[in-house]
Amino acid sequence: MKPLILLFFVCLLHISYGNSEVKLQNVFSAESLKKLYEALESSELRSDSSSVSPSSTAVINDYADNVISQVQSLIVEKGLDTVETPDAQLSFKRKFALITYKGSLKLTEGSVASVSSIKRDGDVVASYSNKYLSIQVPLRYDVLDVNYKYRAQIMKIHQTGRVIGKASSTTLKVDVGLNLTNLVVDLKEFALEDIGNIKLSFKGNKIDDWLLKIITNGLVPSFKGTIKKVVNEKLYDAVVTVVESLNKELHG
User: Fold this and answer.
1) pLDDT for 181-206, tens place per residue?
2) What DSSP element (H or E) covers 34?
3) How far apart are CA 171 and CA 66, in angstroms?
4) CA distance 214 to 199
5) Rg from Cα positions in the chain
6) How many CB atoms lie within 10 A of CB 166?
7) What domains can you pick out in the chain, each with its CATH number?
8) What is the C-alpha separation between 240 and 246, in angstroms, rounded?
């Protein structure tokens, strides 16, 4: 089983990342493969002889950390650390005491930053059973920064400035599989599991506390939606492209 797993990763050495000219040779280097091989040869590799179909698992954290570190550098080099986001228009109505406040919030010139700060969030496990290899990769962003220029209009009050949201502990799970019978790679799972607390800071005109509360109540869910969209579109598309490229390479 070990040589087959190693063969799978060696194949990755010859793949390009779509048309972006991002070479995966830089990600799956000889050093990375060496760490994978050492993990598979270590005592962490366990066989379950009690099951009908023998299975094995290996914790490959050292290998994963090496690859993730190179992915971080690759994101920065290709200018993908900051992703521009579309403008947004929010309408809201809030009641304080006996007064109902109506207003709108326009967000422009937005971006999500710190995309390269992705890291491992727990053990990365490679498991093998019935000629199928699965690698489960838990990932985490400690902080993702969302930045927008805003214009708020509440009743006859107008406020402008910039707002920065810092989302903590955004977690993801990726599971990639390889069928060793037909050498087909598939993305079994790509899941954004949780977006942590978002702390907002405002720059520009001073905002009264009551108005700040109204704006904050509208912005937090909007910012979470923005982060979800960036991760589920940009990062997901990147992973799918890698999987498709690998299948193309394996099958000519």
Assistant:
1) 888 889 999 999 999 999 999 998 77
2) helix 30-41
3) 19
4) 15
5) 23
6) 19
7) 2-251 (3.15.10.50)
8) 10
